Amino acid sequence: MSIHEVIEVEEWAKPLPGLDAVNEEYWKAAREGRLLIQQCPACGHRQWYPRALCTACAADPDWLETSGRGTLHTFTVIRQQGIPAFKAELPYAVVMVELEEGPLVFGSMPGVDVDTIEIGMALEVYFLAAADDTGVPYWRPIA
Amino acid sequence: MDRTPVIVGIGLSDYPKAPHLNGVQHHVLAAQRAIADAGIDKSEIDGYVGAGGGGGMMVDDAVTMAEYLRINHRYIDGTMTGGSSFEFHVQHLAAAIRDGACDTAIVTYGSDQLSRMGRSLGTGGMHRGVQRVAGPSGYEAPYGNSLVGSYAMHAKRHMHEFGTTSEQLAEIAVGVREYASLNPNAIYRDPITVDDVMSSRMIADPLHLLDCCAITDGGGAFIMTTAERAKDLAQPPVYVLGAAGGQTHWNVSQQTDFTSSAGALAGPIAFERAGVTHDDVDLLMFYDSFTITCLILLESLGFVPKGEGGPFVAEGHLKRGGKWPLNTDGGGLSNVHPGMRGIFLIIEAVRQLRGQGGEAQVPDCEVAIAAGSGGWLSCIGVAILGSNRP
Question: Is this model's pTM higher than 0.90 or not?
Fold first, then answer.
């Protein structure tokens, strides 16, 4: 078990994922501070985002709780964005993180000084409590 | 009967800014001009192909456009892979024409992106405010990425792995702008330098404003038929030598190799079918949504080994007079980009292969490659076209 910080939010102003029968477990776990991926019981393949099948062998995948740690695979610094909730946070990095468990996951690093960000740096997940049933994973350098 | 697939008509609507046209009118004007160019009766057209995608208040999906044009087709294809749709259309139509599913088909596209929707395509964000976003894009929606940002993540990784520089990418924008300066219709015609690109404002690191394509209005159309039918039409036929496509992901969150593309899948198939080599190619029409798009297409299609694109581009090989001139119409970077540019790659390749390139004509242009990138380097469509019978 690896529980990471969940920060309460007064008013959420950004788009949110739509929950469905396959992914609600993922977003609910995030609300509780846990980052899930999927692992196939038949072939061992690991994947993100969650799906109703293993993309390697088509079997039904299981959940796998991750360490919530990884390295920065690539990123960009967003310096122009029209949506007010994001515009207020400019500039910020949008990132692809390679998890210790293997898969790449998509996210961002709001509030992290963009001049300190480099590919390969070690990152850890934290979550914002966006709604009662939804936590949103974010990334920051491991102190 | 010789059913070798050929392109016999091309048409552009009014661009780069045409406030007198809505998106459907762009489709129509381009279609009228393609029909006139081919010298064919509209009544002969028995196939319709389009990707829609005009957006806003526009309804231009394939069945609606076929109805609007009143083409009671016996072959229809509405494949929508983003900007590369039209290269996939060539692949599909080549097979359909060979098979006899139709004899003569028209492909159309139109968008009033600049006049009606403004310049927010690249950085406006697709999902505004607090809303639930269904499907896989829900995994990206909370983070404030932009279209530019998705390509920028490719550029960043390419730089990290191979030492590619912003100056090298800028050379692509400079070379394409030189061609735009020869095109009286192009939206941006003033020559630029590497320094101009480097000093333009950063949109999403490492992509500057001048690494990004323009936003314009525009429409295009082309007509495909059999080599047999082409014999007594107005224009010399352009042959579809080989076409192929591939997909590695759709949403950028599912990209697994930020330095490559499905061109690595589609390229070898297209070249094998065409029976030509890279050295036979006289003209590159690459989807230049961003400078990095061209670099990754150049490498993944096998024109240069992976990682060597940066230095190669900096040596000027893609410029006017170089080994492989790129985007002789001025590209999406400087000529026309109404949202989905793939159809303009085909149209300009045909123009060049007919020898109708004007001041920008590539000498002895006999083989051209149109390579479209749809989505976020997601779906790559490749069409190799030639002026001579395969």
Answer: yes
